[in-house]
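queue> pop job 88
queue> type: inverse folding (structure -> sequence)
queue> payload:
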């Protein structure tokens, strides 16, 4: 009742279903932005002191990827899921600094570039230290 055919949210009952006496058409975008934010949260989370890749992607989504989503600390993260398995994670540090990445099961191989240092994995977390512009690519040995 409050969405147009193009998915824009409007501030009135466009179907005249009785949900509101208002029927005017000024639209707002918070509904669309909430949808986009929800997808990003499914793909990448970084507000708990570490980067977690694809923490809420449904198991039915076998082929999924994203490119350069921003994590806290000015890190750009890209990742790919192939045949239902998270196969690759790339992290680029725009400013430098350190972070942790939460790795799902499997044996991960680390390729460091531009002054990045991968520390020892402790449990399911890998510590990373970056220079500005540094990057690391993590590849899952399962694939």
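queue> result:
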């Amino acid at each position: 009742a409050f969405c147009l055919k193009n998915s824009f949210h409007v501030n009135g009952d466009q179907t005249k279903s009785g949900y509101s006496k208002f029927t005017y058409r000024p639209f707002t975008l918070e509904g669309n932005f909430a949808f986009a934010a929800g997808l990003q949260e499914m793909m990448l989370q970084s507000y708990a002191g570490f980067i977690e890749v694809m923490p809420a992607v449904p198991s039915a989504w076998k082929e999924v990827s994203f490119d350069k989503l921003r994590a806290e600390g000015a890190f750009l993260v890209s990742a790919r899921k192939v045949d239902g398995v998270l196969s690759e994670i790339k992290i680029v540090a725009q400013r430098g600094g350190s972070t942790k990445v939460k790795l799902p099961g499997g044996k991960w191989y680390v390729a460091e570039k531009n002054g990045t240092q991968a520390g020892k994995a402790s449990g399911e977390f890998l510590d990373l230290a970056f220079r500005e512009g540094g990057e690391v690519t993590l590849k899952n040995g399962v694939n």
